[in-house]
## 1
Amino acid sequence: MPRRQDGKYATIELESYEIPALTKREVEGLSQSRAGLVATTVGNYALFAGGSVTSSSPSSTVDAYSNSLTRSTPTALSATGDGLAGTTVGSYALFSGAYASSTVDAYNTSLARSTPTALSQNRRELTATAVGNYALFGGGMRSGVSYSTVDAYSSSLTRSIPTALSIERYSLSAASVGNYALFAGGCSPATVYSPVVDVYNSNLTRTSPITLNQGKLNMVATSEGTYALFAAGRTSSSYYSSTVDAYNTSLVRSIPTDLSVGRRLPAATTVKKCALFGGGMSSPGSFTSTIDAYTENLTRNTPAVLSQGRYNLAATTIGNYALFGGGYETSASATVDCYEYSSKDLELTLYKGTRYKFQGMDAEATVEADMATKTIATPATGYIKLKKGTLS
């Protein structure tokens, strides 16, 4: 909310200002309990793919939730297991990397599966994001060897191979903001906990690397408005980090308020104007149910907790619903927690002499009483002019 001085008044300007509210909703669980799965959204469906029922029981199951939260089970993945990466480009959700497989499974908006050209190298523990008309799969490992390879798939599923990451690494994370895809952290041969952030623009040109505040692996990432956020993970000094790195569309880094609980292997997604980080391992054998939400100005709040603490879960968003599915507690879970985004009205207590104008008003109004409470529908666009008074 920008504030400026104008003669005897201080003016507060609001543009599409919202007060987010997250309400938990009941939703049917996954068709199969599993951890280490991955999630993304295509068209009118949120997809939860792969994972493992136990360490010796990999899964190829895909669960789809419509925008009315009805669950279905599309054709299974062609490869089973965890270690997958997933993202969406154009009309396709792409998954690859299960058990170091090079196979890529693509689901269109009707949930029909196809198998585009495979990755250029078999690997797992890679990560994926999308920028412009491309889905990017970066890094990974196989048989103790780390990779710097990046495979790009266009919106027509044509594969190309951009410039590799600046260093080989696995267990990295990725998100996109503005015209950039960011690949951050991970484990590399030279630096066990890498602080490197490799940046690709929408033309797949890799620009000069930037850095995290500290080296990390097992982070999660999501994008909210003008920020890409990287949170949680493991550092050289802590198995359970609470720090958050935020990069704006100019790639300037800021450090928001820490997560309320240090953790690794949580899940992250963004619903409307809230970036959510949920679950994770918070100490040996202890799994948190905490959700941290960051608004568009990076203010943190804590909505209602998950129905059970668990880690190695997955999250994605469909419409106004953020879904957190699967994960591990004492065993693999089929639970899906749903958070519905809505917007509260803006309630203002204004004092005599205050002037204001918001959407739907034909002219500026002035408060005549000593004090008045005004309710403004959100998203709110307009201004308040304060004169020797207080806004609360």
Note: The first strand starts at residue 3 and ends at 6.
## 2
Amino acid sequence: MPRVETIERLLTLEEYERLPDDGYRDELVRGRLVREPLPGGIHDWVAGNLFRSLDRYAEQHSLGHVAFDTGFLLSRDPPTVRGPDVAFLSWERIPSEGPPKGFWETAPDLAVEVLSPSNTAAKINDKVLEYLAAGTRLVWVVDPETRCVTVYRSQKDVHVLTIDDALGGDEVLPGFRLPLSQVFDLRAR
């Protein structure tokens, strides 16, 4: 199983921003650098299915911006930068001057985490709690292996959807509905 590595020396946000690309996916968690191997093909395919559906819907309904593989500054002290696989920001969360050069300095309205072999339940739970504490209104944890999605609206409002269910956008993406069978469709198009 691929290994997640945590670097124990605390980093400032500025030090983290200057790190070179070393082939890992990096996040800054309470000042600590957390590295995991790049995800594989199924992860990419499922994240791509979600991105395309969300992006198309958000654009058709002028709701905001769908991002992928970008950093969100969830906390300054200690510094925490998370990079959901897919995220949605409503126009209200996007600065009037447009996107930042660096990390988004707000939590996304929706954060999507697609599980990889290197993820542990504890690490994913930690991410979910950080997103919710920072103001994310909806978190989807997508498991390609079990073909389930766990939907978090708060710490106490948690639902598991299975392959016969559909994802809903709630008040974050009003009217959005995507059958999980389409999320987990791995056939070439």
Note: The CA atoms of residues 62 and 91 lie 8 Å apart.
## 3
Amino acid sequence: MKISDWLSKDELATFTRRSDARAAATLLGNWALIALVFAAVATWTHPLSVLLGTVLLGGRQMGLATLMHEAGHGTFFRSPALNRICGQWLCAYPILADMHDYATGHREHHRLAGTADDPDLPNYRAYPVSPASFRRKLTRDLTGQTGLKFIAAIFTGRGSDISRRSDRRSNALPRGLLVNALLLAALLLSGHGALYGMWVAAYLIFYPTIARIRQVAEHAGVPDLMDPDPRRNTRTTLASLPERLLFAPNWVNYHGEHHFLASAPCYNLKALHAHLQARGYYAEHPQAVARGYRKMLQQAIARPEPPAQAPA
């Protein structure tokens, strides 16, 4: 399969065109939603609003992770300097990650997807898993066990499924703590410093949960992880508005398109999907696109076989 089979030179130029204005609007939109969540909970403080706000902050932390991913590809802003600065200080450091280290490993994932050497393969090779196995995974996430392991990995340098590390990462942790201290300071100045606990709880509980479901959506339970064709080893999941707020921020759900054309900025992926759909790119690969996260989970979770009936 060649990109030129599906895109003309003009179409390729259109779908890979980068825009500083669109990138800035996307990044500011993510931070505006974070501010809105804190403001809403500060105005209507109630256990239910705190819980809902914490869940939504987990989705926004995933949003920052996806923009770190985009900036790491160099496809978010047109300006390399803006990719480097915003990708680190406004996307990676708030979630205690490092864009450069993440991008190094992630490029290998793209290069080796569809092979046994894919470095991300351990994250989804076992799928489809049983419903009981998946419930155990979600239980570990929702009780903070996964998040605590993630925090331990950050402070010890052992790495994790969500953020890779290297020897160069020594500056990332103090800078991440600095950015989080600034966020806490802003909340303290507003008179609502206690709300920073929502950010921490989201990071320990809902961000790992959302990250797992996003990861499952992208590559788990696909037709053939050992096939280099992204229609066979990757999945796009069409998402509703609530799903976009949590599992699919910033068009990350168009993962098949991202693997088809990694140089396309995230804000062009929806249009690229429509173009490929119209051209028949998915015609013989219906499992390459799931209509919603419920449908996706049905593909990624194995259902138990019904018991065999005894012969009459």
Note: The two ends are 52 Å apart (CA to CA).
